[in-house]
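Researcher: Sequence recovery benchmark, item below. Answer with residues only.
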């Protein structure tokens, strides 16, 4: 695992189309993140690409399929394959989303929200604990994007996260774009959210682009555009408050050339470096 107290570099999400450029890149401190679901196999060319990248750079695993808020435990076969991959590449960090995609035996291909009830808290904690026990690793949980108000909350989001970390020992992966979108869509103050994030348990930061929904006034977490200026502003505010943390630039659609991602990565690195300089 990356030591967040000493390793505070910025990285990018790795895509196979960038393999040659990523392998040859000599940028100091650069690291990569992948979705483990694309590599949970026993062999083959895709896994070989990941192993070649891992031989040169740290790699983190950012999952999308554990369904930690589901009404059942994470799939045992999925956990077994995730553990095998983690043991194989020794990731800097394993992370997942605070969401569900499985309910009453039905799978939905999305990261879905839920009321933050006392019951949900116990359920999510149990699933995180099982995941960490199987993996024998601490994991980080990402804050969701919200597109509408849900009823039935017993906990505010940050209080819910604080209690998750207290009960399970997990950390937080703070997606700054998700904070901005949720604040815009639901009408709360993104700065206030950033100012109240529990500092000590933020293990990683995500930055991504977004877009407008063509049929509503909502902003959508598209990962198909450059990081927007208001998100950069929130990132600077966050890092000024909690210090430099490992940060990833996400891009999952409309993939640009590798050097474009490196440009965004350089901007993030400059913010992290400034925070480290102020801390000296």
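Model:
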């Amino acid at each position: 695992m990356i030591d967040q107290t000493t390793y505070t570099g910025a990285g990018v999400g790795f895509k196979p189309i960038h393999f040659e450029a990523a392998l040859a890149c000599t940028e100091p401190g650069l690291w990569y993140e992948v979705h483990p679901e694309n590599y949970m196999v026993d062999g083959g060319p895709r896994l070989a690409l990941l192993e070649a990248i891992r031989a040169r750079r740290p790699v983190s695993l950012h999952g999308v399929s554990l369904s930690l808020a589901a009404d059942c435990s994470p799939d045992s076969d999925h956990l077994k394959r995730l553990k095998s991959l983690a043991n194989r590449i020794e990731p800097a960090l394993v992370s997942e989303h605070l969401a569900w995609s499985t309910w009453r035996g039905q799978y939905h291909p999305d990261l879905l929200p839920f009321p933050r009830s006392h019951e949900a808290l116990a359920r999510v904690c149990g699933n995180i604990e099982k995941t960490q026990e199987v993996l024998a690793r601490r994991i980080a949980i990402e804050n969701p994007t919200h597109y509408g108000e849900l009823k039935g909350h017993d906990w505010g989001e940050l209080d819910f996260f604080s209690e998750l970390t207290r009960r399970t020992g997990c950390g937080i992966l703070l997606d700054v774009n998700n904070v901005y979108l949720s604040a815009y869509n639901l009408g709360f103050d993104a700065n206030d959210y950033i100012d109240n994030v529990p500092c000590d348990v933020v293990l990683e930061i995500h930055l991504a682009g977004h877009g407008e929904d063509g049929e509503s006034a909502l902003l959508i977490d598209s990962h198909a555009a450059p990081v927007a200026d208001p998100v950069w502003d929130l990132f600077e505010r966050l890092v000024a408050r909690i210090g430099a943390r490992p940060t990833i630039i996400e891009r999952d659609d409309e993939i640009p050339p590798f050097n474009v991602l490196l440009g965004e990565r350089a901007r993030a690195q400059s913010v992290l470096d400034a925070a480290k300089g102020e801390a000296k």
